[in-house]
């Protein structure tokens, strides 16, 4: 089918970008890239920033479908998905429940562990936590992170006992729910998933090599010092094993459309550990899903088109 025909079938498209979360800056970059890609394919696409415009205005735009390029709370956590369900506007990515579950790292772990999928051990933290007991259970180093944030916001690697309270305080600035997680020493990987012909398919793994193994916000988006390898260099059978685990993790959360799992491959035994599932991954020029897609022969513009064409609703409703 020609690009013109594909574009005409999509109707008026909104690209949701910006938003209200701590990841607003990255979302603006993701959304701008998506918007430019769709326009280059002839799509009648328009930006919409829910951080600056009201939901009443969103309804008044009468979009036929939207591409969600929002990250973090209020965009990736089921809230915007619920709004779009009410408005009857098909949207990209996972539905309300799956988005909410994947955004909550604790709930994600509970579901994965119930299915015996590998994920690092964890403890939920509070101001009253016994820090020594946490360290006794999880060991050092360990990771402290907000339960509902992404883009490495509020995450700390704790190497000494006296640093744990400060790490908790930092994470608590971003989220009232904080967890400590077992540190897995090894290779950092990510595995995108893209629904193709109604079935989730894992794309090639991307290996992440950050300066001093510190894949923080600066090294993720701005320093230019982080290396990304795709192909990742792993044995083919091991890569397929990790891809299969990722697809199973995606299905267990009820995800659809597309997503991206972050994974640690333990150095001691090459066992993969699932860290989290992103249901609205970054789409900037440095983002991981586009890198992986290119290795699979899917360029950025085509990737955006495929994600958009899969836009849907949890259930069919009449559009306002």
Automatic annotation (TrEMBL):
Pathway: Cell wall biogenesis; peptidoglycan biosynthesis. It comes from the Bacteria. Mg(2+) 2 binds at residues 276, 278. Binds 2 magnesium or manganese ions per subunit. InterPro entries: ATP-grasp, ATP_grasp_subdomain_1, D-Ala_lig_Van_CS, D_ala_D_ala, Dala_Dala_lig_C, Dala_Dala_lig_N, PreATP-grasp_dom_sf. It catalyses: 2 D-alanine + ATP = D-alanyl-D-alanine + ADP + phosphate + H(+). Residues 109-309 form the ATP-grasp domain. One of its GO terms (cellular component) is cytosol. It is found in: Cytoplasm. It is an enzyme of class 6 (ligase). Its EC number is 6.3.2.4. The keyword Nucleotide-binding applies. One of its GO terms (molecular function) is metal ion binding. Keywords: ATP-binding, Cell shape, Cell wall biogenesis/degradation, Cytoplasm, Ligase, Magnesium, Manganese, Metal-binding, Nucleotide-binding, Peptidoglycan synthesis. Its cofactor is Mg(2+); Mn(2+). Belongs to the D-alanine--D-alanine ligase family. Cell wall formation. PANTHER family: D-ALANINE--D-ALANINE LIGASE, D-ALANINE--D-ALANINE LIGASE B. HAMAP family: Dala_Dala_lig. This is D-alanine--D-alanine ligase. It comes from Oxalobacter vibrioformis.
């Amino acid at each position: 089918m020609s690009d013109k025909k594909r574009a005409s079938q999509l109707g008026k498209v909104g690209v949701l970008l910006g938003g209200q979360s701590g990841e607003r800056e990255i979302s603006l970059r993701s959304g701008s890239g998506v918007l430019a890609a769709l326009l280059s394919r002839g799509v009648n696409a328009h930006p919409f920033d829910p951080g600056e415009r009201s939901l009443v205005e969103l309804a008044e735009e009468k979009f036929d479908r939207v591409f969600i390029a929002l990250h973090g709370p209020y965009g990736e956590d089921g809230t915007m998905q619920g709004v779009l369900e009410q408005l009857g506007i098909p949207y990209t990515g996972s539905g309300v429940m799956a988005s909410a579950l994947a955004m909550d790292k604790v709930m994600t772990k509970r579901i994965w562990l119930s299915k015996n999928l590998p994920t690092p051990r964890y403890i939920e933290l509070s101001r009253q936590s016994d820090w020594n007991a946490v360290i006794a259970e999880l060991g050092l180093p360990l990771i402290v992170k907000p339960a509902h944030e992404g883009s490495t916001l509020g995450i700390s690697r704790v190497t000494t006992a006296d640093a744990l309270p400060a790490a908790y305080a930092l994470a608590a600035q971003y989220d009232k729910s904080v967890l400590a997680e077992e540190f897995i020493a090894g290779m950092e990987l990510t595995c995108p998933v893209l629904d193709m012909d109604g079935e989730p398919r894992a794309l090639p793994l991307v290996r992440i090599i950050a300066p001093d193994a510190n894949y923080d916000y600066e090294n993720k988006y701005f320093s230019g010092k982080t290396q990304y390898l795709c192909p990742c260099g792993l044995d083919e059978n091991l890569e397929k094993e990790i891809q299969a685990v990722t697809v199973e993790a995606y299905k267990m959360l009820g995800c659809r459309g597309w997503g991206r799992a972050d994974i640690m491959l333990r150095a001691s035994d090459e066992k993969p550990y699932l860290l989290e599932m992103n249901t609205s991954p970054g789409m900037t020029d440095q983002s991981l899903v586009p890198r992986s897609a290119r290795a699979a022969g899917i360029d950025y513009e085509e990737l955006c088109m495929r994600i958009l064409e899969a836009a849907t609703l949890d259930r069919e409703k009449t559009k306002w």
